[in-house]
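User: structure tokens for Glutamate-rich protein GrpB, please.
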Amino acid sequence: MRKVEVVIYDALWPVQFDIEAGKIQRIFGDEIIDIHHIGSTSVEGLYAKPVIDMMPVVEDVSRVDQFDSEMKAIGYGAKGEFGITGRRFFQKGGENRTHHVHIIEAGSTHLERHLAFRDYLRAHPDKAASYSRLKLDLAARFPDDIAAYIEGKHRFVQETEQKALAWYREKSIP
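Assistant: Done. Predicted tokens:
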């Protein structure tokens, strides 16, 4: 069972993202359109589980599976869609995960909602601080129950994501 660990923001997380993004870019080459740093480690100052979430964007997600052995060679386990249609998910580090890679197709609603949530928290430090407090509280209450920790965040994430999407779409209108 994975222990719930929430830590203070680490300025090395963007560096770790860049290093790993370079490795993934070399494996996938022209298949990758872009690679985004998402999740809590992508928001400066936000407390987070120390796992770098990455979202590479491709034209055709069905072509991703042919790279499973190359991903395995750099430490990733391929998990297929892993509960989200149209995604390919990889984990690095086993029970002591260090990276998650969520590969999705260009135009996916998953891309917009992740970027909106990240950018909203970056632009609204009060919301990021509230999220940090919630995560620290949940980690203290459920140190050995990752499912309860995730469930405890659900309402905050859903409500914030809706606000974030509206904000993100509004700021994107010329």
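User: Anything notable?

Assistant: Strands lie at 32-38, 52-58, 76-78, 87-92, 99-105.
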